[in-house]
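Chapter review: from sequence to fold.
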Amino acid sequence: MLLEVRDITKSFGPVQALRGVSLGLKPGSVHAVLGENGAGKSTLMKIISGVFPPTSGKISIGGESVEWHNSEQARAAGVSTIFQEFILLPNLSVAENLFLGREPRSALGLIDRKRMYQESRRILEGVGLDLDPAVLTGSLRVAEQQMVEIAKGVMRDARVFVFDEPTAALGDREAQKLFELIRKLQSEGKGILYISHRLPELFELCDEVTVLKDGQFAGHFMMKDTNAEELVTTMVGRSLDQLYPPRRTDEAAGSPALELRDVVVEGLKGPVNFTLRRNEIVGLAGLEGQGQIEITRAIFEGHTLVSGEILFDGKALAHSGPSEGIGAGIGLIPEDRKVEGLFLSLSVERNISAGLLPGKSLASVAPTARADIAEQVKRLRIRLRDVKQSIRELSGGNQQKVLLARWLVRGVNLLICEEPTRGVDIGAKSEIYALLRELADSGVAVLVTSRELPELIGLCDRIIVVREGATVTEFRGEDATEEKIMAAAIHGGHG
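The token string follows.
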């Protein structure tokens, strides 16, 4: 075995996160680690990566027992980790992030920037990324930042690579580039541990899978000998035949809530034309970077339009910032919840009550909203010790539910969800889909973007395809297929 972990346990005070977990990683193998949020996957990966020491158990690499107390020791032993959450510094360039702490030096001991930029271009090209290494990392799209994070991880000469939800922020094209890169590492005899909630990519990429449940080993399968149903049942303890709730019929949709008429957003060709009615869930689909996020932000933040108009409940939107958008009855769950959605230094209670903020302070809001907050925590089945708990301590799925609770407490009329289930396990996905449908049934209009086409097809009543900032066609949810959507996204029209 290239890597072997045996009987790993990990306790954080009275909480036992892992109990007797074992797995083995062969050279040239891609080994998936699957489980719900909170199952112990990330804790196990952090132990393998040196972030945490195990409470008990053994780790060996190449047959030799190892013991390390920090991530630098793990890297020195040949373990490179690409975590789901970015560890990039936004105020530094791409090249500076790639070489942070190990910058090439000239004979005089100064940073050799020319060499650093040359090496950065080579590294970026290796992951299929056409970027200027001198550009500030904070100016990049989320998908581009994820690819830079991946480049930073694979540029190390490691034997074991740990990928924690690497495709959560990637579109299909970037994901395929990543898969090519992983196959190249595999051909070189490297071992890859791979965490993802996207089952189709596990079957495309992985050789075997270890399933964790409640911090314990739940099963091991060769990918060629198992199927999605068996894995889901092992992971969540129940079948998920009905992942998506029933969609509405056209006749059941309500009056127009949002109308975009000949809208051209700055920097995009446009125009955008579509109507979103109450009781509906409508998706925006398209290739990565074709204007989906710019359109949602024009609605929520009130970006100045080059031309056209946006109507909300029959009136032209005239706000010029998020607070005014919230005041108008619009809520947003952003694609990167930790950067744009959550207040990571605050409690769950304060994060939920932040939706009531315009014109108030957190201190004045929280006491008056506690009953509503408690009701939504119960309704959304948010797993936590109590509402005073730090938002940082919650799993990705529960953090996403906190953002939903924020807008439920507020009582919005339009909810925009950019990547509604990014980094969320299958069990929590099903719950979030049901909640969005329940919200739509109550009269709220829901607008969704997602890099996962099966999600849009399964969840949405209608799907609007966007290309170069323009709406090119529309499909009813029951008529849509991945092939039809991709053809329209690439060629325009109905393909």
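Two observations follow directly from the output. The chain has a mean pLDDT of 87. The first strand starts at residue 3 and ends at 12.
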